[in-house]
Design goal:
The chain has 13 helices and 26 strands. Helix content is 25%, strand content 30%. The chain has four domains: 10-174, no CATH class; 209-291, no CATH class; 295-376, no CATH class; 380-472, no CATH class. The radius of gyration is 33 Å and the shape is flat.
């Protein structure tokens, strides 16, 4: 792209501003920073106290900032266009005029993506962009594909690797040091686990985890004659024989959200094979107990029997219900040798196991699906939102509370609550039983059994004086 060899290129920064002079950059300006320790990093300036003092932070990323008290000098990275220099065969680019007594810093050792070289994870780098401008950022490798991006501000604002022509590392910081130590630990662990040892007392029945589950199964069948291995393995996460710190252990393996590596949580409640087998019996006891096929399939193995019961139960109150309003499909199938309730949405390719312990619980779940489908199929024709002030619900704030009259003449209420980062909504059907009440006050008593004030924010104290709501509901 540019004619300059990045390996030979040097950049000189000569227009530093001393923080001690309270000479600070403009809000948001991205700067090269010389710390009081002599290290170099970069960040965008965010003053505190409305910029009246030199106090503030240079933001580098989410939960990643440098306090102004740590900074000795700063040099703007904006306002420079190196395009003409980079298009010529030069090896030295001097940013700003040198003067007697000025602070001057040089950076070299630039690497190019044309050579397929990436920084190390969490390394903060000085960047030369393909448009000839300067930038900086912390390298963040993409988890599931090649490449990555340089994080430079909060909310994961980043420069794509495709925008960068060359980069060179700035000084190591705590995040990079932690990453290096984590990588060293991974390598130490990998080396230890090449030839792990096995405690003969712990693994006296061999190195096949199925043998230990089968021995536990024999004991469980003394209490639950229907017990099977698939039932036991419903208690997740399952145990495996894993390598940890140079030893074989019984452990549960999960995936790290950070880098997709395996995390082994070892079993620590005993030291012998028989103690582990007894533990497996306790660990899987409830899963097996609640998988009794006589309870689970007490109405037989014809799925239509269960669906008909659920439909008839919902139809009593959702009078407009039609079977086509439920978008789920259900079946009873063998999964790993055991019968299971399964379902799939519309015409998806595969079924998923519907893990319930009894026929009644499965029917209740299907009822919920019928109810949700019925409400979606019954459009609202009018609405009323009672007024309310600030209401906190178990750490969430009530945001929305709206009554709807439906096309069928029935009513529902929709409640939304959330905090600064997340939230949720839920619809409740106001059953005909509520409207059988002779007075509005009696109606509220019945209604608040469905949408209780302690869970959803508004109670009798707020709703009873609301005359408009009273009229909207037909009282």
């Amino acid at each position: 792209m540019f004619n300059v060899d990045p390996k030979k290129l040097r950049l000189s920064f000569n227009e530093f501003h001393d923080v001690s002079d309270r000479d600070m950059p403009q809000y948001g300006e991205y700067c090269l920073l010389e710390l009081k320790t002599g290290a170099y990093t970069a960040g965008g300036w965010h003053p505190s106290e409305n910029g009246r003092t030199a106090a503030g932070q240079f933001i580098r990323g989410t939960a990643d900032a440098v306090d102004s008290e740590e900074v000795a000098r700063w040099h703007s990275l904006g306002g420079y266009d190196l395009t003409e220099c980079l298009e010529e065969d030069v090896n030295w680019i001097n940013l700003g005029p040198e003067s007697e007594g000025c602070r001057s810093v040089q950076f070299d050792g630039f690497k190019s993506y044309s050579n397929k070289k990436n920084p190390k994870e969490e390394q903060f780098c000085l960047l030369i962009m393909k448009d000839g401008t300067l930038a900086a950022g912390r390298w963040n490798k993409w988890r599931h594909e090649a490449g990555g991006a340089f994080i430079y501000s909060s909310a994961l604002a980043s420069h794509s690797a495709d925008e960068v022509w060359a980069w060179t590392p700035l000084s190591p910081d705590q995040f990079f040091t932690m990453e290096l130590e984590r990588e060293k630990e991974k390598q130490r662990e990998k080396k230890l686990n090449k030839n792990p040892s096995a405690d003969p007392e712990l693994f006296k029945y061999g190195m096949d985890i199925n043998v230990y589950y089968e021995k536990a199964l024999e004991k469980l069948r003394e209490e639950f004659c229907w017990a099977t291995l698939p039932m036991m393995r419903k208690q997740t996460p399952v145990f495996q024989i894993a390598r940890l710190h140079g030893k074989y252990v019984f452990g549960q393996i999960s995936r790290s959200d950070y880098d997709d590596s395996d995390i082994v949580t070892p079993w620590t409640e005993g030291t012998t094979a028989d103690e582990f087998i007894d533990f497996l019996c306790r660990y899987t006891h409830d899963a097996v107990q609640h998988a009794n096929p006589e309870e689970k399939f007490k109405f037989g193995t014809d799925i239509n029997v269960y669906l008909e019961k659920a439909f008839n139960n919902v139809k009593k109150e959702y009078r407009w219900l039609d079977k086509k309003m439920n978008s789920w499909q259900y079946d009873i199938r063998k999964v790993d040798g055991d019968l299971e309730f399964v379902r799939r949405y519309r015409n998806e390719s595969g079924f998923s196991v519907y893990d319930v312990e009894s026929a009644e619980r499965f029917i209740e779940s299907v009822e919920y699906d019928y109810q949700s489908g019925a409400l979606q199929a019954n459009p609202a024709v009018a609405s009323y939102a009672p007024s309310f002030g600030h209401i906190s619900l178990h750490g969430w704030n009530l945001e929305r509370y709206v009554f709807y009259k439906l096309q069928s003449g029935d009513y529902k209420v929709s409640v939304t609550a959330g905090d600064r980062t997340t939230g949720g909504s839920r619809d409740f059907f106001i059953t005909p039983y509520c409207f059988e009440a002779k007075t509005y006050e009696e109606f509220l008593d019945r209604y608040l059994e469905i949408v209780p004030d302690y869970s959803f924010g508004l109670g009798k104290k707020e709703l009873l004086p609301d005359k408009e709501l009273k009229r909207f509901l037909g009282y």
